[in-house]
Amino acid sequence: MRLQTSAGLLPLISLTTALTETPFLGFPSPWISPDPSDAEWQAAYEKAAAFVSQLTLTEKVNLTTGTGWEGDRCIGKTGSVPRLGFEGFCLMDGPLGVRYVDKASAFPAGMNAAATFSKRLIRARGEAMGEEFRGKGVDVQLGPVAGALGRTPQGGRNWEGFSPDPYLTGVAIAETIRGIQSRGVIACAKHYILNEQEHFRGSVDVRIGDKTMHELYLWPFADAVRAGVGSVMCSYNRVNGTYACENEWVQNYLLKSELGFRGFVMSDWGAQHSTLGSALSGLDMAMPGDMMGPPSASSPPYGSHWGGALTQAVLKGEVPQWRLDDMVTRIMTSFFRVHVGSYTSRPEPNFSAWTRNTTGPQYKYSNRPWTTVNSHVDVQANHSALIRELAAKSTVILKNTGILPLSKSSLTSLAVIGNDAHDNPNGPNSCPERACINGTVAMGYGSGTTDFPYLISPATALLGLSQEHNITFFNTTSNWDLTTAQSTASNASVAIVFATATSGENFVSIDGNAGDRNNLTLWDNGDALIRAVAAVNPNTIVVLHTSGPVVIDHADKHPNISAILWAGFPGQESGNGLADVLFGDVHPQGRSPFTWGKDLESYGVELLTVAPDPRSPRQEFPEGVFIDYRWFLSEGKGERGRVTYGFGHGLGYTEFEYGDLVVERVGGRGGYEVNKGKTIPAPVMGEVVDIGDVEGWTEPDGFEGWRIPRYVYPWVNATVYNSENGTARSPGIGDFPPEARDGGVQEELPAGGKEGGNEGLYEVLFEVKVDVKNAGTREGVEVVQLVSCLVCFFCCDPVRLMMNSTSHPTTLSPPLSSSAALTTSSSPPTPPKPSPSPSPVVTLASGTPKPRTGRFSPSISRPSLSGRARWI
Ligand SMILES: *[C@@H]1O[C@H](CO)[C@@H](O)[C@H](O)[C@H]1NC(C)=O
Ligand SMILES: *[C@@H]1O[C@H](CO)[C@@H](O)[C@H](O)[C@H]1NC(C)=O
Ligand SMILES: *[C@@H]1O[C@H](CO)[C@@H](O)[C@H](O)[C@H]1NC(C)=O
Ligand SMILES: *[C@@H]1O[C@H](CO)[C@@H](O)[C@H](O)[C@H]1NC(C)=O
Ligand SMILES: *[C@@H]1O[C@H](CO)[C@@H](O)[C@H](O)[C@H]1NC(C)=O
Ligand SMILES: *[C@@H]1O[C@H](CO)[C@@H](O)[C@H](O)[C@H]1NC(C)=O
Ligand SMILES: *[C@@H]1O[C@H](CO)[C@@H](O)[C@H](O)[C@H]1NC(C)=O
Ligand SMILES: *[C@@H]1O[C@H](CO)[C@@H](O)[C@H](O)[C@H]1NC(C)=O
Ligand SMILES: *[C@@H]1O[C@H](CO)[C@@H](O)[C@H](O)[C@H]1NC(C)=O
Ligand SMILES: *[C@@H]1O[C@H](CO)[C@@H](O)[C@H](O)[C@H]1NC(C)=O
């Protein structure tokens, strides 16, 4: 294999060259094409094709490449097409609201959305976020997240996503996308794929087989594609030797061909490593476009892997024109698909991500032109009500010996104890990237955060309530002054003690936790504080604000601890949402979206924190599909003894009885139809690249005075062009066979055919009905779940099936009874998937049935791509 390195490549990149790479298979990057069977898509595609056909080579390249880190006012911004009045795309973090702006909401984290088990609430959260991004003039919201999925409980960014259960994450990501995009904002499913930890995220090489890929990590992305997601962000890590953003297996083969993804792939910030490798392997947009720092001697010749370098590669035929045209058509189709109205009427960004000042330079690095950079547009509307509802309904009651709900009329005194209950004395945004635990924690840290417009701490909410209802209120903030904590707690009839454990992204750290958590215990002396309070007050309630499970068995067993609640990262209405549940104003419906093991070891997965050679650490994911509850339930191990609270656990204030379970086969008799078909030849849009049109691809005369420092432009530099050094092949990819540039008719993959993959994967096979009765004395909400074990020789794949409750947790009053149906499905071929929403048949379900004897195990025609992970 020939590795071509270029003088311009960063030394870092050459050093991280993979030791053994996946050979480049030469699968050409799939192009999107008309689809008259889908009128909405077809209309968007036609508008996009008409638009792209008018563009020149450099205008096309402009839309594929960011103008550089902090080059514009958005976190990511592409070049524009001034000739047609088309402003470049504005991209903004993150998955729980608009980052780096004021007057926008701080929503609950993804894991909290999942904990509601409510499609309605998850959709509403997406809609509200979409409205806020739109209101700020943002084109692309950089979320939601399905990677990290949550392989390890310490995973730094797990909370940004939903749940380690791929089925729940799939439902949640799809509803979030539908919500965001319904408001005219392109959603971005990220981080694709296997970005499961923060340690070594920029170099780790995850080696993974076909089964684990399809049934676990790819699964929710299939749901995202099926929901019509407009963009996908490729991740920092490598997969089978090759960086995700230059990886034809994950981008060309799995995402764009098997899953039939018709939107665009953008790089995570700085995750692109080459010009040709990324272009031929399916990347469509380079972010932030430059090398995320001032140009240096080691930067590539254009200060970018794309921009002028991509123009040059197209001129030289190294990247075929159809590939560039496909990139831009994908970008513009996603735009027209979600954008209501004409492209010229869309609001421009009305903020700067880099300053809160009202006026400042439009372009930071040129310090000009001086203008209004922040209009401080308030986009919060009435979203606080939804945020409060989400906070309350995502709170999981893990333990309750009967103390809850508290009574406003009979409770006489209350003690609120711990730093995590109180306001940060310097304000909720005083720590950059939320990287501290001073005061109550309501989101993790890193780029998945926002500024809080305000943050209602539990102490504030509970003090207000106490004053209103004549409850005597005691409180103390220190987690370390256990004497004061005990004297405060012993004053009150009920003591609520708060504790936290947080995590985030690796560019910031707290107490040596560089993103991933170093352990699974509580932070800031939390366990000692809980023990101290429980020692003196028999009515102790524990409230946890954590980024995932913590080791809490001691509190579960403690006789004086009457209740334990997990409130996750609830966002700006934290205290109000919690109080609503504590006092029974909201029926608790939160269910744990992950398993609470008794210790870290019991999870059976290892976070890689030490590597012999940090430039090329490698991971094999030996547990295969068995993460979280699948691990605890898998063959012969059992949850008993190793789990404090299971996945899906959560108590309410009443009791339900189940009866009359009926399982009915409703489909799957017709067999599975393999997708056959051929693509059209790759379309070339507009004028064919003319290598003689030098004026067309070099900087216009007189532009020099307008040039913005550090900005990435699409024009070719004649010196670089003639030196032949302008384009770089990806280290670790090797040569590109002719097939990689073949724009001729291609066979479609048997597993493909539709957005989300073959329709057969979504057929509902069984319907399960059960009667659910409220047998208690209060109204309550039930989230019905079904765990099934698909038995095979010597093994059992635990499968968690959820029912209609996924769409609408049902409120039941005693003594009325209500029945609900749940629909589940089972194999073969690959795990069937839910029918799309809205659907007459209600819910679905699934988990990971074993692929049967290769009849259609994710339909891979290339032998090198098939393979099964070992059974545990
Ligand atoms: C590319 O975008 C930049 C930034 O918006 C703009 O200055 C430049 O004129 C554009 N180039 C072309 C060829 O339109
Ligand atoms: C990736 O690596 C795994 C484990 O080594 C192997 O089973 C699988 O076939 C590889 N996939 C590709 C596409 O190379
Ligand atoms: C904001 O304005 C202040 C006062 O004019 C100035 O000192 C500061 O540098 C500005 N900040 C930014 C990021 O432009
Ligand atoms: C925030 O908490 C840290 C310890 O976690 C402490 O060192 C620091 O002084 C606190 N900062 C403020 C502003 O209170
Ligand atoms: C609170 O106590 C005061 C005085 O003891 C009494 O007037 C008031 O009605 C009480 N309020 C409530 C809500 O019980
Ligand atoms: C008690 O809580 C209130 C409301 O948050 C706060 O203002 C006060 O400082 C707290 N007191 C102590 C001793 O922590
Ligand atoms: C776990 O990590 C937290 C945060 O760094 C720390 O406060 C705590 O002491 C650690 N626990 C143990 C048992 O080391
Ligand atoms: C073109 O590239 C050469 C060599 O890297 C550089 O010296 C020159 O400044 C560039 N010209 C322009 C207009 O950017
Ligand atoms: C191009 O590469 C050659 C060696 O491959 C090197 O000598 C030359 O300096 C490079 N030119 C530029 C402009 O980078
Ligand atoms: C499932 O829930 C939906 C929404 O509440 C309802 O319309 C439908 O009738 C339910 N299906 C069954 C079979 O109960």
* CATH topology description of the domain at 383-594 and 647-653: Rossmann fold
Q: Reading side by side through the largest sheet, how are the strands ordered?
A: 1-2-3-4-6-9
Helix content, binned percent: 10-25%
**What hetero molecules are in the model?**
2-acetamido-2-deoxy-beta-D-glucopyranose
Structural class: alpha/beta
Gyration radius (Cα, Å) is 27 Å
Can you offer a commentary on this structure?
The chain is of the alpha/beta class. The protein has a domain at 383-594 and 647-653: Rossmann fold (3-Layer(aba) Sandwich). The chain is built from 21 helices and 27 strands. The strands form 8 sheets. A 6-stranded mixed sheet has the order 1-2-3-4-6-9. α2 crosses α12 (321-338) and α5 (119-135) packs across α6 (166-181). It binds 2-acetamido-2-deoxy-beta-D-glucopyranose (10 copies).
Comma- or semicolon-separated keywords:
single chain; 872 residues; alpha/beta; Rossmann fold; six-stranded mixed sheet; 21 helices; 27 strands; disordered C terminus; binds 2-acetamido-2-deoxy-beta-D-glucopyranose
